[in-house]
Amino acid sequence: MKTHSTKINSKAKTSAKDVVKFDLDIANPATLTKAQKAELAAIASQSDASINHADIPPLADAFWQTALRNPFYKPTKQSTTVRVDSDVLHWLKSDGKGYQTRINTILRNAMVRELA
Question: Is 89 exposed, middle or buried (0-12, 13-18, 19+ CB in 10 A)?
Answer without folding.
Answer: middle
